[in-house]
Write a structure and sequence with these properties.
binds inosine-5'-diphosphate; alpha+beta; binds magnesium ion; globular; Alpha-Beta Plaits; 4-stranded antiparallel sheet; single chain
Length: 136
């Protein structure tokens, strides 16, 4: 099988603040993801604006960037077959209210903005987002 992929996962400030990172990481491992790279960081508002640039025209952009830079986050490169889509499925819908039972956002998310995890939405964006945090 050659469709081994890597995707970017972020454990967002609301989850780090509640000390959920080990629990969330164990959920990834249980589903067969390998955590290839990992770091805990606290990004600036400017970095958050760069990361979320695709959303710059959205009404929630400013709040989103304030939020992602509001506290420490854990960024990870996750690897498995079909990592991008499998991670999106494990995360669940953007709004925890709409997320299916058993998904990370259903279990841990508080609200549409404090939804505990980020995951790349395509193979192409996964490469861009992994480079953003791990290229050095
Ligand atoms: P995703 O994280 O499920 O890929 P996106 O549409 O890419 O969702 O939005 C990025 C992030 O912006 C979401 O995870 C969420 O935290 C926040 N967000 C999305 N839509 C809204 C909204 O309507 N109000 C407030 N925050 C939002
Ligand atoms: Mg997205």
């Amino acid at each position: 099988m050659s469709n081994i992929e890597q995707t970017l996962s972020i454990i967002k400030p609301d989850a780090v603040e509640r000390d959920l990172q080990d629990q969330i990481k164990s959920e990834f491992l249980k589903k067969g993801f390998e955590i290839i790279k990992e770091k805990k960081i606290h990004i600036s508002k400017e970095e958050a604006e760069k990361f979320y640039k695709v959303h710059e025209t959205k009404p929630f952009y400013n709040d989103l960037c304030n939020y992602l830079s509001s506290g420490p986050i854990v960024v990870m490169a996750l690897q498995k077959r079909n990592a991008v889509i499998d991670n999106r499925n494990l995360m669940g819908a953007t709004n925890p209210k709409d997320a299916d039972e058993g998904t990370l956002r259903k279990k841990y998310g508080i609200s549409i903005d404090k939804n505990s995890v980020h995951g790349s939405d395509s193979i192409e964006n996964a490469k861009i987002e992994l480079d953003f945090f791990f290229k050095d």
